[in-house]
């Protein structure tokens, strides 16, 4: 099995050197594929492009025992499809164009191509509320499907943004569900894109005492968390009847009314979210 890395730098030579250093191989053993040669750009450097290369190294580990697959069968492993290769090349070209140096990893599961970009200063490729990342993902999906007869879904994550955002959404959803179940009042979450709403619906599927649905039109469509008692009621939702608290009881958390719950409700004031992070379809 070959090991390979994709690197970007000012020149092809620098990109190759970075890749060889990471792989820990000599230049003689490296198999180099130049994805983008780069360009110096015109006046004031406008149009400048970084060089992007893919360097591979053969696996020098001991050969494993061959597995017999039949007289006319030969197993060679899952080859990288053209759609995956073109998608990765497109992402590398976009990142190169905005001056981001990073490492690209990709793999395919079923009809989904997963592309992960790690590196520093990825904020420009993420954008406010992940809008730039969503745009790059959409364009990458168009490129991948151009080279595939079957529909391909692309899942692109840059700088770990989607992973952190998903964890934050799940935490916010669970907090909203707890409030709705305790108070007997519906809780409205902040406006989200379809992919984020799917995460919330999925996270609360097994949460007892509440149901979820979406209301509104894009881009202001929001998830509503409804307590099952209120959802089954024919009239307006009312607070649940509870016993009067004693001095030893914990005070009930204030109910959410008109203001939608946002990710800011969960943030530690000492650890504000990155300015660039503030992300993909659903019902």
User: Structural class from helices and strands?
Assistant: alpha+beta
| Count of the domains | 2
Strands in their spatial order, largest beta sheet: 1-3-2
What is the general shape?
A: elongated
Quickly give the CATH architecture of the largest domain: 2-Layer Sandwich
Assigned CATH superfamily of the largest domain: K homology (KH) domain
Largest sheet composition: 3 strands, antiparallel
Give the N-terminus to C-terminus distance in angstroms: 41 Å
Helix content bin = 25-40%
Mean pLDDT: 75
CA-atom Rg in angstroms: 25 Å
Q: How many beta-strand elements?
A: 9
Q: What is the helix tally?
A: 7
Instruction: Give the topology string: H per helix, E per strand.
Output: EHEEHEEHHEHEHEEH
Name of the CATH first level of the largest domain: Alpha Beta
The percent range for strand residues is: 15-25%
Query: Which residues sit in consecutive blocks of at least 5 with pLDDT less than 50?
Result: 62-77, 230-258, 266-281
| CATH fold description of the largest domain | GMP Synthetase, Chain A, domain 3
